[in-house]
Every structure is written in C-alpha cells, then in structure tokens.
Design brief:
Shape: globular
Strand content: 15-25%
Distance between the termini: 48 Å
Number of helices: 21
Strand order of the largest sheet: 8-9-7-10-11-6-12
Helix content: 25-40%
Length: 658
DNA sequence: TCAATCCGTATC
DNA sequence: ATACGGATTGAC
C-alpha cells in the first residue's frame, strides 16, 4: 500500500490517503515519487509519502491510477521539512510541496546530466562527495578570509569536521561574502555533506555562482527556464552535486546528506515567499538545520532582529570581527545633521544636496574615484509621526503604528483601529501629529547638473548594473541595485533618510540600516579615502549604527524594543484577512491558545467598498506559536469542509505587519 | 408506499 | 470537484 499526499488545496484534506499499488508498479512507486490517483471521482496528482503494509482505513481502497515517473523527487528529508513548514505556517502539506518541488519536465529525466562546467568538475555520477582525511580538514579555515573574524576559522573547522555549528555572521565592510560562502561550502563538502545556500536576488546569485566555480554545484532560480531548472534540480536530487545555491525556492532543494544551510542578507523581503503558506527562507532553512542536524550560517552586512534572537537565545553563535578590524575596513561615515545646510553651489542646491555631501562627492570625483548615490524608491505608505520630534507615532493601546487614512482625517491605529485621540508623544510630549513626507525625487539629471562633466549612470528597477569601472563617475542607484565598483567607491551618499525612517512599518529602522550598510559596504576603507555621508540627524539610532558600523548593537536594540512593544520576533503573530463575515467565522471556529491577544479588525486599505476586506491580528507568546498555527489551520479545515467559499488568508509572522 | 430530490458529508 | 447516503417531499 502507498500513503499518498493528494494535491488538493482544501485544508480539511490535508492528511495522507492510502492506495493499493498495482502489481506492475511494484517497487517503482517508491516514497518521493509523483503519482496520479482517483480521488473523490477525479484524477489528481499526488505524492507517495510512504509504503505501508497495512492501512488504518476501514473502507475500501482504490488503486494508484498511474506512476507519473519512478524518479523519487521528494526526499525523506525534504518531506519532513515540508511537513514542519506546513505546520509552522498553518498551511497544507500539498501547498508546501508545490513550492518545494519544481514542475516535472519529462525530457530532463531521460537526458544526461546538465552539461555545466561545474558538473563536469564533479567527475561523474556519485563521486561528487568524498571525504578528505582529518589531517587535511584540521587546517581548514587558516588562510581563508574567515581569519578576519576571531570565531571564523573555528566555524570552518567545525564544518569540515562534520559538526553542525550555527552562526550569525556580521560581514565586514567591503567583505567578499560570496568567497566566504564558497569557503564554508567547500569545508562542508570536504566533510562529505551537502550545502544549500539562499540569496535574495539574481545579482547576488550570479556572484555566488561565480565564487563557487571550483566546487560542483548548481544554481536554481526562476530566471532559468523550467526545463533547465528541473534538470538542475534532478542533478541535486540524484546526488550528482553536493551544493545547491539559489533564490528562495532553493531552500527546499534536495542535496545528499545536508550539512550546511546558509542565507545571505536575511532582512531582504524577497526572502518571504508570496504564495501560501508564505514561508520565509530564513525560517525554513533554520527549521531544516534543526531537523537534519545541519550547520547554519545567517550572514549579512546588517543583522535582523530575528538573527539577533538566535544569538540571544544561544541557538547560534555570532561571528563578528574585532572592533579595530572593523575600524580598519570601514569607510569614514558622517551625518549631515538634522537640518542640513544646502550647498552654496547653485547646481548642488538645485539637486538638494547638503553642502557636506556635495563636498565629499566632489573630492572623491577629483581623486578619480566613482561616487555612489543611493536614492530610495518612492511610494511608501503615509505614516504619522510627532510634529515636534518626528518620532513615529504609535497606538497607546497596542503599540501599532498610526496612520492617516486621508489628509484631514483623524489618525487611527493600523492594528486595532482605535482612533488616536488626544495624542501625546512618549518621547518629547508633543501633542501634534504630522504626515511623514514621502521621498523627494532626486533624479540623475539633477545630479548630472551638480557634477557637470562627470558621467552619470543609473542602476535601478529597470536596468540593474552589476559593476561600474574605476574612475570618476556618479552612480545613482535604488536600494538593492547598487553596482560593485572596481576598487571601491570613493564616496557613498545616502539620501532621503526620512522617507525610509518614517515608513509605516515596524521594521523601518532595521530596513533603513540594512540598505545603508549594503551601500556603504561598497566604499573604500577610510584609510584609502572612502567616505560615506548620511543625510540625516546623527542622533538617530539608524545613523549611529552605520557611523559605528555596529549592526549587532542596532539589532539588540531593535529586539529589545520589539520585546517591550510585543512585536515579532519577540512574539508570534498571525493575521487573518478576508471579507468581514469570513474572518469572524474563522475566528469563531478557532480554538485559539488561551494567551492569544486579538487586535482589530481593521479594514485593509486600498480596497473598494463592495468587496472590502478586513484583517485581524492575533499575537501569542513565542511558545504558543505552534498551537496558534494549528488552531488556525484546523479552523480553516472546518470552514472548507462546510464549503465556505469566501477566501480567508492566514499568514504567520507576515513581514508587512501593519 | 415509492421514487425524485435535497442536503450534508466524505473523499483511501 | 463528485459521489453517496439519509432525510424530505410529493404523487399515487
């Protein structure tokens, strides 16, 4: 008999069903294979989860209709991970499996292994993983770039020795992180184990792919076509390559006996899967490390509150450089002050460049170095802050962010919906509120006028530059699209701080620092003339974090604040979104944990009055997270069994918790 | 009393 | 979705 997960989206059918195996399929219908089965009269896709001798089911059993392919594409390790992810995120196993295994492409199964150079380097079918002698492994870490970090060589040695160290890594400014990831991967492969590494976007993937040239690996991303993607997936699944790198879908990639999971820049919101059940790559990878006994590496220039929590709970150790190493590598960072004086030069003034930024950029250009100007994308939600001290305004009852629905309306909480009557700022006592200004446009043309005679390049959404040559030029880039400069930038200007910091988002400070550090990391060290100008008040925590290059300090501060306000990751949160009746219906059916704290409902902004949806927020202590997800999934099952049609979206720890 | 129909529930 | 069983209803 075969225990099958049927590919239907209904939560109340989220359990295995038993089928008889026709004699001719015999042992081919192995666990992990795709099958077609008759289910409630229909032919549906399914996964063989297990072969069993007897069924618990008392009624008659059907036969498997067809074996789609004898290829076991769902490994036991990934199946267990998918189950855990489904439970963590109140979703169905079938939903997670759809994310975990790419669509089949029959041609790729019969074709020979992909003809990539990295594969040929592996030297054949199963020779990809071979253990080196302990004597060799002992020296792993010496001579690598990890030596700049006191705990670095020990981390590499532990990987090479087959152990499972867990690390939160704060990369030094200018760090060649793909090279460090490649060293960690090589050490793990040397121990006879596999590696899965996830990055946020295609640009980071290209860099990592290149850094891994000497190690047999495949790169998975949506950018390659479905056939090639499946081919590469199969190469990993068949144990032909020990290392898989990719964007978030690669978090489920099968590798033989996984020894290390790694994620770069876990604060990037591209790591959050937009399809149900909305798992986050960091959480999936850490779950995977936990379940499989693998090592974990969470790296970035910045540090998220979630990563900080791993350090503070002792789940992971931090890998950070000594302060004097940081000082030696970091550029000189200066804030312009709260009310920056505009440059006297009329061209610079028209570009609204503060005089300090203008001078620093001009000096860098004169010394023959490129200048990076980071310009945030526009279109942030209108948040509300104190008119006097500009601190973001928060709800008195639940600490949610206040929002101004329209120009002259009363501000209200985006979480619990209570109006913010008689507001008093907890920081300065101010009683007036103001809508935060959205980012001012600073175009490349304006900067071109300010620095006449210097080439101006732009890198952004439409066209992302990977690199720019050495030599004087102005590079205008949106966050995440900053090109690498040969030899590093002479100056980096970080503009429009207020547009970032006043976002109606609890992660605004963290996100701002993440973007600033990513840009500032591309500057030369101070000793080589590298300078960074932040157009903001030096007293702000975000500015301090960049000025001191101390992401750990900021993360600790952020986490402490979230703890005192009752925000994730200090607590576990779920949102339930849908038509008002459906949301109420689901919550009525849910047996929530006793500690559950319900906030809302609040209307979901930007929807027409006909099909208006609203959102409830439920928060529980971290320990009750599993119970919360279980209760919500069960309630969704009750609703779907009753054929309730109104869709309700359940999200755990959503990034946009507003 | 029987068949056509409706409703709810399970789906192996 | 579709299939089935039990309840319900309507005509003889």
């Amino acid at each position: 008999m075969a225990r099958v997960c049927v590919d239907v989206p209904l939560p109340h059918l989220d359990r295995p069903f038993d089928y008889l195996v026709p004699a001719e399929l015999g042992e081919d219908a192995r666990p992990g294979t795709r099958v077609r089965v008759r289910f409630a009269g229909q032919l549906v896709d399914g996964w063989v989860l297990d072969r069993v001798a007897a069924s618990e089911h008392s009624g008659p059993l059907s036969f498997l209709e067809r074996l789609v392919s004898p290829e076991p594409v769902l490994s036991p390790e990934v199946a267990a991970l998918a189950r855990a992810v489904a439970e963590r995120y109140a979703g169905s196993l079938a939903d997670v499996l759809r994310l975990a295994v790419p669509p089949r492409h029959a041609g790729a199964e019969s074709a020979p292994p992909p003809p990539t150079s990295t594969l040929r380097a592996s030297g054949g079918e199963t020779a990809a993983i071979s253990r080196t002698s302990p004597d060799e492994a002992v020296r792993v870490g010496d001579g690598s770039g990890w030596q700049a970090y006191p705990a670095g060589p020990a981390f590499l040695r532990a990987l090479a020795d087959g152990r499972a160290p867990r690390a939160v890594w704060s990369a030094l400014p200018g760090e060649d992180w793909p090279a460090r990831f490649a060293e960690a991967a090589a050490a793990t492969v040397r121990s006879g184990r596999g590696v899965v590494a996830v990055v946020a976007d295609a640009r980071d993937l290209d860099r990592l792919d290149a850094a891994l040239a000497a190690i047999p690996h495949v790169a998975l991303s949506a950018a390659v076509g479905p056939a090639e993607r499946y081919r590469r997936f199969l190469a990993a699944s068949r144990g032909q390559v020990p290392v898989v790198v990719g964007t978030r879908a690669a978090m489920f990639a099968p590798v033989p006996s996984i020894g290390l999971v790694a994620i770069w820049d876990d604060g990037d919101d591209l790591h959050a899967e937009p399809r149900a059940p909305y798992p986050h790559a960091r959480e999936v990878l850490l779950t995977r490390a936990q379940l499989a006994g693998a090592a974990a590496l969470v790296g970035g220039y910045a540090r998220t509150a979630e990563a900080q929590q791993l350090v503070e709970t002792g789940w992971a150790k931090q890998i950070v450089a000594a302060r004097d190493t940081v000082r030696r590598r970091a550029p000189a960072v200066s804030p312009t002050g709260d009310d920056p004086q505009l440059a006297r030069d009329p061209a610079a003034a028209s570009a609204r460049l503060p005089s300090l930024a203008w001078r620093v950029a001009r000096d860098a250009l004169q010394s023959g170095a490129p200048v990076l100007v980071q310009v945030p994308r526009r279109g942030y939600l209108p948040a509300v802050s104190c008119a006097d001290c500009r601190a973001p305004a928060r709800c008195r009852h639940c600490s949610g962010p206040l929002q101004l629905p329209s120009a002259h309306a009363v501000a209200a909480c985006r979480w619990c919906g209570r109006p913010a009557a008689a507001y008093a700022c907890p920081h300065c006592g101010g009683r007036r509120l103001r809508a935060a200004v959205t980012g001012a446009r600073r175009t490349a043309e304006e900067l071109g006028r300010a620095f006449a005679g210097v080439p101006v390049r732009t890198s952004g959404r439409d066209e992302v530059l990977a690199t720019v040559p050495a030599g004087p030029s102005v590079v205008v880039a949106t966050p995440g699209a900053e090109p690498l400069a040969a030899g590093g930038y002479g100056a980096v200007l970080l503009l429009d701080a207020w547009a970032l910091l006043t976002r109606a988002d609890l992660r605004a400070t963290e996100e701002t620092v993440r973007r600033w550090l990513a840009a500032a990391a591309l500057a030369r060290p101070a000793a080589e003339g590298g300078r960074v100008v932040v157009v903001a008040d030096g007293g702000l925590a975000a500015v301090q974090a960049v000025l001191r290059w101390d992401p750990a300090w900021l993360a600790a501060r952020e986490l402490a604040e979230r703890r005192s306000l009752g925000f994730p990751p200090a607590v576990r949160v779920a949102t339930v979104t849908g038509p008002p009746d459906a949301v109420a219906d689901l919550l009525a059916a849910a047996r929530l944990p006793e500690e559950a704290d319900l906030l809302g409902p609040v209307p979901v902004p930007g929807e027409s009055t006909e099909d208006r949806r609203e959102r409830m927020i439920i928060r529980v202590p971290r320990g009750a997270g599993r119970a919360l997800a279980g209760a919500l999934h069960a309630a969704a099952a009750v609703r779907s069994a009753r054929k309730a049609v109104d869709p309700v979206r359940i999200q755990l720890d959503p990034l946009d918790l507003l």
